[in-house]
Structure formats: structure tokens, C-alpha cells
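Newbie here. two chains, one complex. Structure please?
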Amino acid sequence: MASQREGGVFLEQRSYRRRRMIDGARLLPVIAAWLFMLPLLWPSAGVNTQEPRALSDALAYVFTVWLALTLVSGLFVFLIGNVEPEKDRKDGS
Amino acid sequence: MTSLNALVLVCLIYVALLFGVAFAAERAAARGRGGWLRSPVIFTLSLSIYCTAWTFYGAVGNAARSGMEFVTIYLGPSLVLFGWWWILRKLVRIGRAQGVTSIADLISSRFGKSNSLAIFITVFAALQMQSVTLSLSVFAEADPNATTFDKGRVAFWIAFGLAIFTLMFGTRNLNANERQHGIVIAIAVEAVVKLIALLAVGIFVVWGLAGGITEMMSRINTSEIGQWQVDRSRWATLTFLAAAAFLCLPRMFQVMVVENDNDEQLRMASWMFPTYLMLMSLFVVPIAVMGLEQLPDGNPDLFVLTLPLTLGQDSLAVLAFLGGFSSATSMVIVATLALATMVSNHIVMPIWLAAREDGASVSGDVRDVVMTSRRISVGLIIGLGYLYYQFSGGSAALAAMGLISFAGVAQFLPALLGGIFWRGATRLGALSGLAVGFVIWVWTLLLPSFGAGGVLPSEVLVNGPWGISWLRPGAMFGFEGLDRMVHSVWWSLSLNFIVFWSVSIFTFPRPLERLQGAQMVNVFFHHGPAQSWSAGVAETEDLLIMAQRILGADEARLLFRNQAIEQDVPDQLPEPTPAFLQKLERELAASVGAATAHAMVGQITGGAGVSVAELMAVADESAQILEYSNQLEAKSTELTRTARQLRQANSKLTQLSVQKDAFLSQISHELRTPMTSIRAFSEILRDTEGLAAQDQTRYASIIHDETVRLTRLLDDLLDLSVLENGQVTLNHQMANLGDVLDRAVQTVQPGPGAALKITRDTVDEQVTLETDVDRLSQVFINLISNAAKYCNSERPELNISVVQQRDGVALDFIDNGHGIARADRSVIFEKFSRLGDSDGSGAGLGLAICSEIMQRLGGSIQYLPGMEGAAFRVFIPNARALAAQ
């Protein structure tokens, strides 16, 4: 009885964590779009009087953000885990 | 410089290698060792057909012209994959649940298996053919020294080779959901080759030419594209456009949704494919910068190739060529297959079916028809692509041409997303939205792309048709000064969306649309059948004949046999139940598309669609099933409850039986002890002669005492039995509580000088009761004599107090002894329970009798815990208790 209850608490925590990771996976494209649109705010050649950014800066920024997003996406996938087939079976039965 | 012949030789070896790999994969899969072909890595690599020739070569060209803008083409798909949880997960699930064969199939299936919609999308997508052309032109352009005649010949042989490959490995299985292993593995190999090629050129450029990353960065900053300069509207629009095209391109849909096998593939691709794209674009800017530096007059689109070539790196150039070759061929193969499936399923099959008056069930081999039409479509698409190339010359900048087709397929987006997320989307809405988007795309982007005086006269471009200035292709509704691409995408997609939405909310969907809509939008909640055929109408034999012709004889028989076993009629044909027809239709749909399969089953079952009446029947049926299951559930709850009650009753009976046995053995023991001494002493009296008179008297009095004890025991037992059986007659009369107590105390302590001191409150005792006075005083006597007997204090005292309660009178009997141990409290009211009664004077029935009596009188007796000594509360209810007036 006691062990059963402990198991319940454990599962509860795990599924709670999984849901938050799914929330993260949901928000990720929004954050990604925001980060990728950020360079539009930089001073650009021929538009502002300010000195435009160097292309190497832009390269470094875009690829760093890209790599970071990929890692975070992979992290979410890993943390969400492959629980879905079981859920399906439950739904299907 | 590598000679053309050597290049051709390398190409041929490479192609032979691809054929070999494809054969090996097919063979491995046939032997059942093809599990790894479904791995997420292979899936991710197959997604790489997104990186076509115009991204391979054109990205560098684009970077040389507009700096960082090229990266948007890769950022869009990355965004889609980062957001896989939203769209791709659902799309892929629907694709698997519905057996979708193409994007046209998905959309037509969502909107009531509409053939018109499917044809529309297929024709639209067939414009994608120019991408085949585009790839062919790359091969020809790749060799700048070749003459026009050579270019044409090269393009021809390549087109021929591609057609052969696609026919060999792409049209093996009719069922589009079965993976084309040969093609998949060839594409995966090509994906690796093109990545390695681009990385190799990039590494050569950065470390070989520029001399390291820092060097490269400073060279980038000093180059002519070294300043951050983007058209902001283009940056945002192209990112969005690439994301939309990634979802809607027929070839992407083919590898991503149709060929998808499990969710794991998608989950892993959600980070692996962005990584692939990132690597593909990592060295684009360095190559472009070095190209501009070394070859100021060269064609930027071919820097990947010409840069190593001019610097004498022949083998690197060959690798780069193979990379471009790979991008072009894999894309052509998949695009052709996707288109051919759509054309044969949505154009050829419906026409063929309509042309035959006798329908699908009587004659002709459908399987062959589908296969042949698909093969012809493959040949046709590649052939037309080649011809288009021959006539157009294909000189436009690669990326620009690619983007035009992106904007074209992006028109599917509202119908696609609306279809899978919004149940209110209707067929008419989808059709009109697509039509509006298509017209605006053609008018603002496709036609002007041929240049002034090409298709549209320059007069129209400048002043608008018939002088209507707000319809000018470059400035719709007077929005001037926008980039042409941004302008076209903005107007076509927003009007497409608005028309789709507004027509949808004002039209009413047909029943089949509503069912399909519910099933697709709620794909994660239920997998129930979407639409139903009315049972009993269809002839199973006809169905079998038809299924054999599409699925093949063996597979069809297997399907029917399994169904028969499921229906418990082995060795017979299964009944055409709605569920079976549903399953059959889905099997067929995987081969010929949902709309065609629906039409074919419809021809045999007699109705080409589902009527409202049938829908109502289905709804009724499910309502009945629901009600039935509710009833079952209620019954099962009731049964559970009864079972629990029975279990309780059973355990009580068992307990009673144990009690009865204990009671019997107790009573025998109790009776036996006095009997033994009576017998012994009476024998002494009888047999012993000359017994002293003193002894005689003593023995006789022992016998007498024992007899008295026996009688008392038997009286008690009788009393208890009468009380327990409810046979007791109560003799109700009015009495004063004080008097009753007086009598009880008198009985226990007849004379003065008793050991037990009893304190009472005579004022409170002035209560008139209507009860059986004799019985009540029996209870009091018992309690008082218990206190007298068992109170183990040095100066035993018993306090009797009376408490008037709302519904009766409570009498507390509290002594100053040690009380009763907690563990014993539960058994004191049981029969024969004697606590510390070592002298054997009591039978242990007193409290049991008290409890029975109080129950009969409607009151209760209970032990009061927490007092200093033994404490009992006797409660006499109000009905029998009247306060003295």
C-alpha cells in the first residue's frame, strides 16, 4: 500500500515534468522566431546614418543562436521521452 | 582541369554506386533486415531533399548578391522543426491514421474526399515540374565550356537516367505507405554526399585559402558584402515562405508525412534536421566571399564548383560536382514520384473510373491501370521537364526561380492548416481560397517573372490591365515600392486566407466533410471510424474482386480471411459490416488515394457518399451502444456492491459460527464444574458410612450451593436467550428513578456496614420513567454488584450521577478502582467474558444481559473511557422518560 502510494507520487512528478517540457517544446518556435527576427533591428547599411554591423558579427550571431536552439530542442525531445506509444495504446484500447 | 569525359566517368560510377546501394537496400528489406531503414537518421537524411540544387549552388550565389539573406531559406524549415509539437506531429499522425498518399490526397480527404479539390491541387503542383527543369539546367550549366548542343545532350541523358531510376525503385509498390526502400537509401547517401561536398569546399576555403577563422572573418568584413544589409521585409517574408513551403511542397510532404513511419523519427528529426541545415549553410558566406575575391567576373551561382576548379583542386571540384548532382537528382526523383502519385490517383483513376460504365467491379485490372498510369506520369513529368528546359533555356538566377515555386505551393498553407486545426473549414472555403491565392500568385509573380514583354506586355506591367492602376502586377491596390516577392506573398496568402475563412464560415459542410474534419482535428483524441457505409448493401464477392485487382490477389485474400476470422466465420466470406468496409477503403486509399478508394467502394455498395439518414443511423447506433455500455456499467457496479455485501454477510456468519462453538464449549465447562462437585459429594454422602453429622451438613450445603449456582447460571442463560431472541415481554410501568436505584442498592447491600460506599445525588434522581422497572433494576443491580466485587481500591466508592439529556436520561456509574484495561473494553459485553475473576463466582453473563436488556428498553449501556475507575453509562431514552413535574 505504502509503496503503491510512493509509486503514484513518483509518476505524478514525472508526468508533471513531462508536461512542462512539452510546454517548452511548444514555446521554442516562438522564441526561435523572435531570435531570428532580432537582426532586423540592427543598423543596416544604406538605411541608417549609424555605422552598420559587420557581416561577421551577423554570421556569428545567427549560427550561435541556431546551434543553441538545436541543442535546446534536442534537450526537450530527450526530456519529453518516448512515452507516447504507451499513451496511444491506452487511448486505443 | 578535369576533362569532360573523366567527369562523365565519375558520374557514371557514382550513379552505378547509387543503383547498387538501392538494390542492396531493397534486397535487405525483402529479407526482413530493413529495420534500420526506418531509423530516425535515415528519415532526417531523406528530409534533406529540401536542399535542392538551387540551394546547393544558389545559396552561394544569393550570398554573393545579398549577403545573409540566403540563410532565411534554411531558417524557415528550422522553425517548423523546432515547432514540431504544433504542426508536424499532428500532420504525421493524420497521415498515418488516414493512409495519406500526397498533399492533394490529404486536403481532398479532409474536405469530404473531394475529387475536384484533389485535381486542382495536382494541377497546381504540376507546375512544380519547373523545379525538375531547374535541376536539369544545373547539369548543363555546370560545364561552361560545353556547347549548347552538348548541354542539351547531357540534360537528355540525365533525364533518361533519372526516369529509369525512378521507375525501377519508385513504382514497385502500389501502396504509397509502403516505403520505397531503394529510393530512401539512395536519397540518404546523396544527402551525406552533398553535405560532405559543401563542407569540404568550405573547409578548403576557410583553412586552405583564407588561412583560418579569424583571417576569414576579417576578409568577410572587408569584402563587398561585408556590411550587414538586409531588406527587412524580405528577411521576414522569406523566412515565413520557406517555412510554409517546407510544409506544402509535394516532395517534402512525400518524405515527411507519407514515408513517415513512427513518431520517433519526427522527434529526432526535430533537432537533427536543423543541425543538418545549419551545417549546409555554415560555409556559404565564406565561399561566396572568396569567390567574389578570386573570380570577380564568374557566375556566383557556380562558385562552389568554379572556385576549386580555378585553384587547381580538381578532386575537390569533382566532389562538389557530385554534391550538386546529388542534390538535383534526389530532389527530381522524389518530386517526380510525389507528382506521379498525385496525377495517377487524382486525375487518371477518376477519369478511368468515370469512363467505364460498368464500374470497378466487373472488368479490367485496376492494379495495372494504377501502376501504368503512375509509370507514364513519371516519364511524362521528367520528359516535360526536359522539353521545358530545352525551350526556355533556363538562364534565370537559380534562387529566384525556386522562390517563385515556393510562393506557389505556399498557397496550400491556409487549406492545410485550417483543415487540420479548424473543424469549421469547408470544401468551398478551401477551393475558393486556393483559387484566389493561385490567381494572385500567377498575376503578381509568375507572369511578371518572364520579364516585360514576355507574357505580359510592358504596358500592363506599368499601367495595369485595361488601365486599371490598382491591379498592376507589381503594386496591387496601390502598394508601391514593395519587393516583388514580398508583395506577391503578402497579397496572395492574406487574401487566400481571408477568402478561405470567410467562405468557410458562411457555407455549410457536407456530412462527410464534417466527419473527416472531426476525425482529423481530433486525431489525438480518438481513432474511431470517420464515415460509414451502410451495412448489408455491398456484395462481399464484388468487393473481393475489386480488392484483388488493387491490392493483388494474395494480399486481398489475406485481408478478407483475417476479417472472416475476426467475424468468427472462418472459411467463408466476411460480412460487409461498416467497420470492414471502412478498413477496406483505407487499405485501398493507401494505393489509389482516398477520393478514388471512396468512389470505388461507393460504386459497389451502391452509394457514392454518405447520406444524412445514414449518418443519423450511425449516430443512433453509437448512442445505443453508449447507453448499453452505461447500463452494463451500472449493472457491474451493482454486482460489485452485492458481492461486497455477500462477503460481509459471510464473514459475519463465520464469526457467529465460531462464537457459537465457543459458547457451547464455555457453557459445557460452566455446567460441568458444579456438576462434578455435586456428583462427588453426593457419592460421598451415599457411600460413606458413619459420616459425622457435621461433615454431612457441610457436604450437603456444598451440594446446595453448587445447585444454587447452577440454577443461577441456567436462569441467566435462559434470560439471555429470551432477551436475544426478542421473546421477552416487557412490563412497562411508571416509576421514579430514585426508587429504582434505592431498590437496587438495597438488594446488593441489604445491611449497613458494606465495604462499598455509594454516593448519589438524590435531587437529580427525581425523574419519572415509563419502563420495565424490574429489568432496569436488574441492570443497576448488576452494575453495583460488579463495582462491589471488582473495585480494587482500598476504600471502594461508587458514584452514581444522573444527567438529563435532550433525548433521555444518562446514568453514570463510576468507581474509584483501576478500571478496565483498554484491550478488554471491547469484550466486556460479550458472553462469558470474565476479567480477573479468579474465584469463579460469576459466569461472565452479567454485562451481556445488561446490554441486551438496555437494547430491549430502547437505550444503551457503554463503557466510559477516560474516567479514573471503571465507568459505565446507562442511557434511557426520552420516550420512556418524563421529567418529574
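Moderator note: The beta strands of chain B are 732-736, 757-760, 767-772, 797-805, 808-815, 860-863, 871-877, 881-883. Residues 527-532, 534-538, 880-885 of chain B have pLDDT under 50 and may be disordered. Thread marked as resolved.
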